[in-house]
Every structure is written in C-alpha cells, then in structure tokens.
Automatic annotation (TrEMBL), chains A, B:
<dbReference type="InterPro" id="IPR054350">
    <property type="entry name" value="PurT/PurK_preATP-grasp"/>
</dbReference>
<dbReference type="Pfam" id="PF02222">
    <property type="entry name" value="ATP-grasp"/>
</dbReference>
<feature type="binding site">
    <location>
        <position position="102"/>
    </location>
    <ligand>
        <name>ATP</name>
    </ligand>
</feature>
<feature type="binding site">
    <location>
        <begin position="178"/>
        <end position="181"/>
    </location>
    <ligand>
        <name>ATP</name>
    </ligand>
</feature>
<keyword id="KW-0547">Nucleotide-binding</keyword>
<feature type="domain" description="ATP-grasp">
    <location>
        <begin position="106"/>
        <end position="292"/>
    </location>
</feature>
<comment type="pathway">
    <text>Purine metabolism; IMP biosynthesis via de novo pathway; 5-amino-1-(5-phospho-D-ribosyl)imidazole-4-carboxylate from 5-amino-1-(5-phospho-D-ribosyl)imidazole (N5-CAIR route): step 1/2.</text>
</comment>
<comment type="similarity">
    <text>Belongs to the PurK/PurT family.</text>
</comment>
<protein>
    <recommendedName>
        <fullName>N5-carboxyaminoimidazole ribonucleotide synthase</fullName>
        <ecNumber>6.3.4.18</ecNumber>
    </recommendedName>
</protein>
<keyword id="KW-0436">Ligase</keyword>
<dbReference type="InterPro" id="IPR011761">
    <property type="entry name" value="ATP-grasp"/>
</dbReference>
<dbReference type="Pfam" id="PF17769">
    <property type="entry name" value="PurK_C"/>
</dbReference>
<comment type="subunit">
    <text>Homodimer.</text>
</comment>
<dbReference type="InterPro" id="IPR011054">
    <property type="entry name" value="Rudment_hybrid_motif"/>
</dbReference>
<dbReference type="InterPro" id="IPR005875">
    <property type="entry name" value="PurK"/>
</dbReference>
<dbReference type="GO" id="GO:0004638">
    <property type="term" value="F:phosphoribosylaminoimidazole carboxylase activity"/>
</dbReference>
<keyword id="KW-0658">Purine biosynthesis</keyword>
Amino acid sequence: MSKVQVENIGIFGGGQLGRMLAQAALPLNLTCTFFEAGIDCPSKDLGAVFDSTQANALQDFIDSADVFTLEFENTSLTDADALLTQKALYPPRVALATAQNRLSEKALFDQLAIPVAPYQRVESEADLRQAAVSMGLPLVVKTASGGYDGKGQFVVREEAQVSQAWQELGAAKLLIAEAFVPFVREVSIIAVRGQDGEVRTWPLTENHHHHGILSHSIVPAPNSTDLQPIAQDYITRLLNHLNYVGVLTLELFVTPEGLFANEMAPRVHNSGHWSIEGAVCSQFENHMRAVAGLPLGSTELISPCMMVNIIGQHPARDAVLKLAGAHLHFYGKEERVGRKLGHVTLIPTQGNTLEALSSALADILPEPLALKG
Amino acid sequence: MSKVQVENIGIFGGGQLGRMLAQAALPLNLTCTFFEAGIDCPSKDLGAVFDSTQANALQDFIDSADVFTLEFENTSLTDADALLTQKALYPPRVALATAQNRLSEKALFDQLAIPVAPYQRVESEADLRQAAVSMGLPLVVKTASGGYDGKGQFVVREEAQVSQAWQELGAAKLLIAEAFVPFVREVSIIAVRGQDGEVRTWPLTENHHHHGILSHSIVPAPNSTDLQPIAQDYITRLLNHLNYVGVLTLELFVTPEGLFANEMAPRVHNSGHWSIEGAVCSQFENHMRAVAGLPLGSTELISPCMMVNIIGQHPARDAVLKLAGAHLHFYGKEERVGRKLGHVTLIPTQGNTLEALSSALADILPEPLALKG
C-alpha cells in the first residue's frame, strides 16, 4: 500500500466537463491537469492548465500526468499520437477518430448492425443533388467533421436549396447527407467500460433541444422500459468492439420504426450531468475510475430527475438556491449568447415534485429555452 | 446581474474541512483561498494557500478574498482581529472565542439554560483536589483551551491521581474539572444559520469513538425522535444568541437525565460528513451559502446512512470502490498513526443494506476501530 496513492490524470480540454471530471476525481486521490487553448477556462480552479497554443506545452502536459483522457471530442489526433508514443490514452484513439468523422461513425454503426437513418457520402454539388433525388426531401446535410451544437448543418427542404447548402458547407469538402427521420423524440444512453471490460449503463435520458442546443434532459426517459435493453445492447456492441475504456454516449432517435443511432460522443455528455445527484455513481466519477483502472461504481438511479441547462445568461443565483431540490452547477464562465454557463439538476424533495420544480425553475431562468414549452 | 458572479472566500485552515468546503463552493461560482501553516495541505488542490508561518502572509490572505470563514477552530484570535478591521468573518469572532475556551463555553451553555454536567474552574492542584471532593470521582480534567481528539484530557479515577493530573495538565494554568457523566451515547446536532437569521438543522447523528477519535457516525441517531426537537432547540438558542452565520455543531451526551451539552464547534464537523451524499444540501454547501449571504439549502435526509472514518492507514482503494453504496473521500494526506486520511459514507442501495455495507467495510479497513464492535 502506497503512502498517499495520488495519481495524476491529464485531460485534453479544460471546459466544464473537465471541471466536473476533476471534481469527481479528487476524493479518490486523483488529481488532474488540463490541455486547453488559453488557460482561463472552467477547469483552472482544479489543476494546472497547459496552454495548447504555446510551443512545448504538449510535452509539458504529457510530463504532468500518469495517464490521459479527454473531455473535448475534437481533440487533435496529432496530439494524441504524440502522447501515445509515451503514455496511455483512454478512450482509445480509434474511438476518437471514428467519432470525429460522421461517415466513419455511420460505417461503424452499419458494421455493428446498429440501425441508422439512410445516408450518403457527398463530395460535390452533383453528389448532393443525386442524394436529394435518391433519398427524397427533406435532407439533412452535415459536414463530415467539425460540427457541433447544430453548427455545420443545413436542412434542404426543396430542390432549389441544394446549391445553397453546397455553398454553405461545401468548403468542408466532405459532407454527409442523411434522410430526414420523422423522429418522435431524442434519447441518449450513457455507459462506462472498465479496463477489465466490465460495462455499466445509466438509464435512458430523454433530451429536449432548442435552436440546436440541449435545453433539458429527463431521467428516466418516459416510456422507455422496452427501449432500455435495446439501447444498452447497441452501446455495449460499440464499447466492446472499440475495446473502449471510459464513458461513451450514444444519441438515438425514437422513431415509429424503432431506435436509430444519431451519433456517439467518446466522452462524458451534457445529457448525463443529472448523474451527479441522481445516480449512485456519476458519469464523471465512473469515467475517472475507468481511466485510473479502478472498479466501476453503481449506475443505479437514486431518483427520477431532470437536468436543465443555463445558457447565455446567469439566472439570479439566490432564486435558484431557494428552490429545495434544485442543485446548481455554475461553470465559472463569462456570459455569451448560446454559451453553456451551468446547469441545474432537479430532484424531487418531500416538499417539491419534479413538475413543481421544473415549473418554478422555468420562471427563474433568464432564457428558459424549451422548458416553457 | 454580474457577468460571472464569482466571489472569493478566504478560509482560515487548509485541512480536509477546507477541501470539502471548497469542493461544495465551486459549483456556486465561489472560489476559495486558504491560510495554513505550510502550503502542502489537503486544500491545496482547490485554491491558493497562504503560508501562515511567513511574514506578510496574513495580509496577502486578507487581500485574496471578499469574505472570510474558518475550518480550524483554534484559528488565532489575533489574526481574526487583524482581518476584522478590514473585512467580514463568519462565524462571528465571539463564537470562535467562546468555543476556544471550555469555561466560556460552559458559561454560555449555563446562560442559555442548556443542561451541562457539573463542572468547576481549576487553577491549582488545590482547586483540583477540592473539585474531586465536592463533585466526587471519577472526574474528567481538561485544559480550558487547546485540546482536541482526546488530547489535553485526564480522567481522575482515584484521589491519588490528582497530583498526576495536575502535573500533566497544570502547565496550561487554566483547567476545567467535569463530573463524570454516565452517558449512554454521544450524539451531535449540526445546524446552519443564514445572514438573514434563518436556521436549518440536520437530523441528530450518533457518534462512536475509539481512543478519543471519531470512528463512525450513524444518521439518523437511533431512537432520537424525542431528542431531535430538544437538541434543535438548544442549538437554535446558541445560534441566535451569538448572531451566528454558518454551520455550528453541538455535541451532546444522552444520559438517563436527558441531553447534556458537551461542547460546540464553530465549524463544519466530522460527524456531518455524511451530509454530502445523505442530505439534500450538505453541511459544506450550506456553510458556504451562509458565508456568501446566499439562501440556505434543504437539510432534508435523503436516506439513513453511516459515515466511517479512515484513520492512520489507507485501505485498498479498489476494495472500497467495489462496494456499491460506499462513497469514498480521501483527503490527499500522508499516512500517520491516528491521522484522519479520509472517510466513507455508506448509503443503502437496491443490492446492499446499511448493515451489509458496514460489515463489508469493516473487513476492508486496515484499522476498523470501533466498527467491528
């Protein structure tokens, strides 16, 4: 038995996910360092930040920790490769590379017989026009890599928009055209896989978006009893195939024809923030346990709950804190339109139902997004 | 509404209590700095530590934060006075001064009609001899100030030991002799008072010691339904009388004649660590809310639970983490005999009762103390 048993974990990225990963890691005697463009980031309160815009910062970062992970899914593969000649990275590089390219991701879903909406590879305006004919309209066009939170997307609703879509996105050179799925709702499944191959899965979460950004999540997703084992099966196929270590998220559409995989994120996910208070072991703690080679914690639900994002503007802190059952998480970020500044997890108490809490919170948030219906 | 709403809170002390206070404060956009002898302390991962052994460190510490609190009950009153000419300190100085002297503390309990065991002031061996005669043996002799975790105490069981007791403790010049209370068990009540005077109380905790150090706490204290309102009344008298802000702990003996106050601690307390997972709002978060002038959170119990201290030696981390329902908190400290290195909170899960968890944990801890009965 070592004297203090403190290990250091290096995290690519220094945003709120890194901040919450480090918060969860500390009580296990795991400390963190971060690699981020500019050192004034949400993770700075929890460990040294190495500025990725500076020469030599990558090597200093590599020297700073024993094992590595990421909280930013567009982590540079070149940086990952430099690291991998020296130290271990979890999740594995292949998961990162696959998630960074929508075409590779869809190919993997196909390979593992995980249903997806019809899609086509698009490398020219002619490709796009052909896709519109063969798959019909509307058509969702996305850059193969680099997009997030609704950016890098175009919905072609009539043929005349094909040129416009290509003009807007064609610079990316590689696009994907997806058939429009008349989905009823979006859910996500989050799971963690340990270094010994053990897999644990949290309950399905129902996600609501507003202007392409996650507004709120409900757990467990209503009427999801039949969907849970199917989603669990899909994510387990991915985890095992990739020999994955850490937390993986799979976004799914619930359609009349069943579950369709939308995309995966090789990291902890906004739709799993509720697990800090709502599960026995959170996505953050379990990710760090997996990365450090420790046994996984229970993903059992403590209580049905809801997570609401704080976007663009901070609410009056006092008003949120007065709500018994509202758990506030600010990220220490400056206000900016469309920026995620924090979240609130709502857990029913003896005095407040989830419905009452949700309604009270909607009145408090400066920008309640989809919460107010 | 400010752009980021981050305030800084200065904490006298940088031990595990400071570490857990800062952990709870961060999601509220409250950051912390610390004042500690030597900067290598458990709080160092969460904010700047000012080394109290260095000249000018006090002023630098005072400059570093907006409002101040303490996690160390022997915080220097001289330092507090220097601070108070410039900035606010919560809890108030009077609470700190009173808690640092057992005679002042007893006098306050008397004044507020909070029952205590018979006691006498002792300034000489003759005083002590007289106390032994008038109160009878056994007699518990303590230094009026400076003792903790069973240090600075002597139990006089026969008259011949009076000289020995004086020899051991008399250097302190001011002692207190307390009648031996045939108590059945020790409980503690923890409450928080906001800047607006609101008081909230957690459920009574039953505390078990081993060699003078807290071994484990059980919440709620068994058979405490009748005791809860009485203890709540006592601590509320203290809080209101002292115009207190923050968390206060009151240790009580359960005796055949009712509850007797033992001592108070003007800070978050080891017997309240269970509240991180076991209460809607923990003692740490509520203390920081109070100090920052924010509304208090709910002290409602989420589940009956148990807190077990890790003392002297780290257990095998894997073994603790394998127990579903065991929440591990290490403090990042080096091993030393009798030192608190961490704690584990046990919360029943679907698979594990509290009894099963407690029994499994007793087999894992290298020094199970009183847990194994």
